[in-house]
Each structure stands twice: as C-alpha cells, then as structure tokens.
Amino acid sequence: MSAVLEEIYQKKGEEHKSVAKKHVSFRPANEFHTNDYSNNHIHTGSLPQSHIRNIENTVDGYPKLQKLFSMKEKQVMQYNTKPFGCTVELDEIVPTLNDWIQKDNLTFDVVMIGCLTDNQFIYPLLTQLPINRLISKPGFLFVWGSAQKINELSRLLSNEVWAKKFRRSEELVFVPVNKNSPFYPGLEADDESLFNKMQWHCWMCITGTVRRATDGHLIHCNVDTDLAIETNNCKVGAIPNQLYKVAENFSTATRRLHIVPARTGSETPIRMRPGWVIMGPDVLLNNFNSKDYKNEISRVGSNLPKDPVIESLRPKSPVSNKN
Amino acid sequence: MSLNWGLVDFMLDNHMTMMAHPVNGSLHDIYVMYSMFMQNFLWKNNECGVTFAKFCSDLDQISQVCSGCINIEDDSEGSIFNKKIAYINRDTLKLLQKVHYDKAIKLSLAHVGSKTKENYVKQDIPQSQGDSSDIHPSLLHRLMGVLEKSETITPNAKCLARLNQTLSTELGSSKLAKEQAELKTEVMPFIPICSDSRHVSLFAMVINTVNNKIVSLQTEKLKRLESEHPGITECVNSHIHFVPNLKPQTDLSLGDCSYLDTCHKLSTCRYVHYLQYYPESLQRQKNAELKKSIEQQTSFYTHGECCSALSKSILPPQWIKCDVRKFDFNILGKFSAVIADPAWNIHMNLPYGTCHDNELLQLPFELLQDEGLLFLWVTGRAVELGKESLQNWGYEVVNELSWIKTNQLGRTIVTGRTGHWLNHSKEHLLVGVKGKPEWLNRKIDIDLIVSATRETSRKPDELYGMIERLVGMHARKLELFGRDHNIRPGWFTIGNQVTGSSINEVDVKRKYSMFTEKLEGSKTH
C-alpha cells in the first residue's frame, strides 16, 4: 500500500519538477565556448586527451573515409599471409636476420622495430642490423619507442650514412588515455622531465623513391594521421593494433616484419598478427621458416592489387598541381 | 594425526596479548582465551569445546614439531595453574604456518584436479555442480591467496615489487607543486560536450536558426522529446550540443565539412556544418565563476615563487615591434622561459615572410638565459634541426610536447591532406633546459595539449598557463616572433608583426632608447 503511495508522490514530484523546468530559460548563449582542458586537468585531474570526441571512431562524421577504412581493412585481410612468429634470443636477432638475407634471399618492404616498452636493446640492434639489405627499395621503416629513446636515437638516425638511406618522413605519436592504461609509459618518467610523459613516438622512414602523386600502386598517402589514441578495444599487450594499421594502410606491400628488441614479459604479451612476421625473445609462436613464408607471399602476391573503389575513395594529390 | 593449526593461527594473532599483562603467559589464562575464541568465533552453535588437557597436549605437539617456537616454563610441579609460556618465537611459528598453508594449497589443487577429472569421465554433471559448490568457496579463497602471495614469495618478485613501488611513487615536491598549482591557477569555466549521438538529431528538430545563428528553442517540442528520451532536458541544460546547421544545399550523405566553422563557402558548401548550443543560464553561471576565480588563493608551499609573491603585481604586457634577426638581445635582459615560434623555411605559402633556417640558427640565444627553459615550435623537417639548434645553444632537450589539434566539434583533424605522407593531427613543441634551474615546479602538467585550431599558425593559449605553472607567475617570460594575439601580462613579446611597442621595465626602456638612438644615428651619418 505504502509503495503505491510513494509512487504517486514521486510522480507528483516529477510533475512539479517539469513545471519548474518550463520556466528555465533555454535562450541560447551568444558566445562560442571553448574548454581549456589543460586548466581542467589541473583542477579535476581529468586528462586532456580523454575529452577528444573521435577516439573510438577517428573518422566519425566522414562517411567516405569510413568506407575507405573498412574497404582497406577488408583488402588487407584478404591478401594477408598467415601470422608468423619467430622466437629468438636478443643476441640471436641479428645473426638470424643475416641468415634470412644471405641464405634465404628474404627482404621485407615494411619493417617495424620496437614496441611500447623500454626497448632496452634497440640501439645495438639498429647499429648492427643490415638494415639496407633487409629492407627493399622502396621500403618503409617504423621505429617505435618512448620519447626519451627516440631522442637518444636521433643522433644515430641523423648521421650521414643513415640519413642518406632512410629519409625521416613523419613522426607518429601514440597516446594512452589515462595513467592506468597498460600503455602508460610511467616508469619512463625521469626526474629531469618537466612534464608527465604520456606519449610514445615513432619515426617513419622511407628508403628508395616513392612519389605520392604517381605511385598509388605502392603507397596510399593521407589515409591515416600521425596520431593514434588508445581506444576502448585496445587489448593489453606490447603493441596496440593501430601501430600495425598505419603501416598496412600506407604501404600496399605484403612483406611485413616486426622486430621486438626487448623482453616484454607475460603482462604485455606480443600478439600475432596476420600479414606480419613478428620476431623477438618473448614471441610465443615460433612457426617461421623461409620456405613457408615464401610460399605464402607467392600465394598472396607482394603487393595488394589496385581496387577501383579504394582508388576512387582515397585522398590523392590535386591534379592541377602537376602543370 | 595432525597438529592443531587453529591454535597456531590463534597464537600468531594473539601472541602480544598472551605475553602482556595481565595474562603474562599463564597457560591456564591462555586456555580460557582460546576456548572463548573458539566458542565465540568458530563453533558458536556447536557445544564441542576443548579440554585443558587437550589444549596442553596440542601445545606440546606444536613445540615438538617446531622446536623453539614456544618455551613453556613449569615452576611448581603438579599445579597446572602455574604453568607459563615464557617465550613465543613468532617467526618460527609463522614459518610453520606457511609450510602448512603452501602444502594445503597444493593438496587441495591436486584434490580438485582429480575430482573434476573423475567427474569428467563419469560425465555426471549434476554431481560435479554439487561438488564444485562446496569446494569453490575455500578453493577460490586459497587461489586468491596464491595470487596475492606469489608477489611476496620469491625474493626477486618481492624486490621487483618494491622497486616498482619506489619508482612510481610521486615525489613530495611534485605533489606539493600540484596543490600549489591548483590553488593558484584560476578556474576556467568548463562545460562538458554531450556525447550522446542521438541527441544531435533530436535536438536539430527543436532548434530555430536564422542567419547561421541559433535564435530560439521550441520548449514545447523539447518537452515532448523528454517523455520519449528522459534526460534530454537535463543534458541540454548542462552540456554543449552541436546542432547541424542544415541549409537547402546541404547533402547529409556527404557527411561533415572538413573546415566546419572555418569554412569560407558557407552559403554554397554542401557538407554539414554545425552550430554550438548551450543555454544562456550556463553562460551567466560561467561568467560568475570566472569573476570568483580571479581572487587568487595563496598556498603555503612557495617553491619557485619570488619572495614578495603576494604583494607584487604581475608585470603588464610588454612588446617591441622589431626584426628579431637584427635586434640586440642585450636590451631585453634575462628570462626564465622563452617561447619561439619561428617560421621555418618550409615550402609553403604562408601569409608572412619566412626567415632562412641559417639566420635563425645564428640568433644569439645564449644572451637570453643563464638558466631556464626554451620552448621551440617545430614542424616536420624542422624537428631534427630544432633539436640540433637547441643543443648548439646550450640546451638539453628534455621534453617534446604534442599539441593535438581539434576542430569545432572537439574531434581530431583527420582530413584535408595536411601532411605529405600522413595527415597531421598534431604539432610538436621542443622543450630545452639550460643550466640546472632548481626553482622549477616540475610535472604538474602532462606533455600534451588538446586544443582547437585557430588562425594559421596561431598556437594554443594553454601553453602560457603550463609555462606559468613551471616558472611562476612573476618570472620574466619572453616570446620571440610573436604577434598581437600573443601579447599578455607577465610576458615580453617581440616580433615584426606586433603593433608598436610598449615597455614598462625602466632598465629595458633605457637600453632600448639607446639602441634606437644609435640606429637613427647610423642612419643619418
């Protein structure tokens, strides 16, 4: 009985509220409001990047781009090799790669080095690696690391020998959404730092010649952006999927290698990915052999074929510029 | 025959009380304690008690199994009331307990393993369910225990956990600095943006727009919406909404305009544009907040502040119109922080003259700071050049800030071929430190700025707040290559695009007039 009464009272209360609301002015404000997220962070602790409104779907509001992304994803999946893993101790990475190059005549078009961990051994790896023989021309190199690591590597990559072979073309950034994220580079923070570090950096380098206007069979420019933010469906691991996707969307090549020159441990596992050979000491799957890989590549072809729909959708250099 | 493990646990939990006054280790008193404990906590409804003899033999057993863990004194023969525990070795007892505990886990795991196997073979599902229900609580408890324990069991893991804890502990200085910053930074009004995508289309029906402006809202319609979508009125009252500004030429299937509110062809563009709506009441509230927050609070933590921080007013804005390349930096004095946004000589048609990279590198930056921070905006190719230059000028690159550029709708910029190979959604700001400035308040902000784009090459204002929190409000701050919109209190702005000059510091004023006199003198000769 009392429950019924309560309900009636509640309803009456709501009616009262709605009557009160009638008098609330809905007149629109006459000035544009912009939030200062850095200021808000100081007072509430909420991080600026968490207010970005297209994290889950970066191309929200752009149906053409949405279609392009899904078409490209489908095509990449269709022409993927099966996932290959190669478990190698850190000091065996370079000899193994040398074997692949010399004995098996393997080359790759897309090579990614490093992951979102300390990458302790990236420097010796980069100095010892027969990188110009490992990567074909034209080829693409992505080097991931903490901002600190990338800064340290800058001397190496800007020395003459390197700079001639690999042109630094873009600088990518990956941002975790908060401090509890598995991708938060917490321990990277040093006492010298002026700001709390919340980014991972990547150098995208190009070797050989590609022209964005004429080499549409090799590269698709301006599809992705140089920024990736952790999404809800990011799985815990050493490498979020977005890192692979940028490379897959940019280059049409199917021969892709990822070297993880660090122990990543069981808490940040390295997940296998179709279309990639992933190599490192903590890679769980060890199924790589050159013969199988070559068979897979000859099955899928070394580059994705041209797709008329993708061609019509992807951003291209303006034709008028050529005159 | 097994040990009385309950007694071991009991002794471990209560050894302090047992040895302290008034019990003083008296065996009989301890027996009373123990039996009360058993009655109260364990077998409340069970009559089964423990006799004193059983208690004594259990104790004996424990001391036999684990020699030295308890030492029973017997000063007068015969009288059981005079038996005393003289000493309890807690550590050995703990070891004993741990051995038992680990063994119990192993046993129960093996036990459950074999049981479920049996059940699997029998395919006796109901029974297995019945079984699991009575096994699970204790098993779950133990498994949880294993997980918790595993961290402390191996010495390596223990060490790692301690290291991690130490490394991730926030410094007291940065905690205090954060508190100070929170007290001293004025609160900017914050209005959340509605994240319910349905509201956009619903709201579009309620809004009346004239001349690309929202003029009113149909309250009746909104009320009707409220009945179908409860909460929408509340949301409209408290959030920013972006309403599509639909025109006869708008083609919804095309999606959003890349330029949105900065589109120059608003009257012909077929893409969707948006108008911002939030009620006037929020605007009034926001202005009131702004007024209130201007009264700054003081903080007891004063690291990095000047000694008269409370009474000293902040320097008014100062600026000099000049060609930075030919300006004598000696005039300006020393600064705690310098921002430079040079127009790097990249191949783009920018609405202002670019200077050659060489000219920039030759600027006498060493004159501006003895110790302090230099913030250098860089684009693409200039990142490397910028890092090198900073080092040449005597700075160490300690941070690389990213400005994540957003559009009217608070989304990152993803269209428009903004970069050569990939689209650019961010810009980089290099941060160099010269000397060992101990007066900085580090790690208050993060190395990201999320802010909307404005006029070409105009940088986000959030940076000023971040720098002021680092070096303090009263520190001298300089902006090179600034424009009129960069002029602000506490900052000295120089560049060839500011209007006129305004100098308040007497010293600078004197040196500047000497400099201009000399210039004019050389012209007349």
Automatic annotation (TrEMBL), chain A:
GO terms for cellular component: nucleus; RNA N6-methyladenosine methyltransferase complex. Belongs to the MT-A70-like family. Keywords: Nucleus. InterPro entries: METTL14-like, MT-A70-like. It is found in: Nucleus. This is WGS project CCBQ000000000 data, contig MAT. Residues 304-323 are annotated as: Disordered. The keyword Lipid biosynthesis does not apply. Its main location: nucleus. The keyword ATP-binding does not apply. Pfam families: MT-A70. GO terms for molecular function: mRNA binding.
From TrEMBL, chain B:
The keyword Methyltransferase applies. GO terms for molecular function: mRNA m(6)A methyltransferase activity. It is an enzyme of class 2 (transferase). Its EC number is 2.1.1.348. It catalyses: an adenosine in mRNA + S-adenosyl-L-methionine = an N(6)-methyladenosine in mRNA + S-adenosyl-L-homocysteine + H(+). It holds the Pfam family MT-A70. Keywords: Methyltransferase, S-adenosyl-L-methionine, Transferase. One of its GO terms (cellular component) is RNA N6-methyladenosine methyltransferase complex. It comes from the Eukaryota. InterPro entries: MT-A70-like (IPR007757), SAM-dependent_MTases_sf (IPR029063). One of its GO terms (biological process) is methylation. Transmembrane segments: none annotated. Gene3D superfamilies: Vaccinia Virus protein VP39. Belongs to the MT-A70-like family. This is mRNA m(6)A methyltransferase.
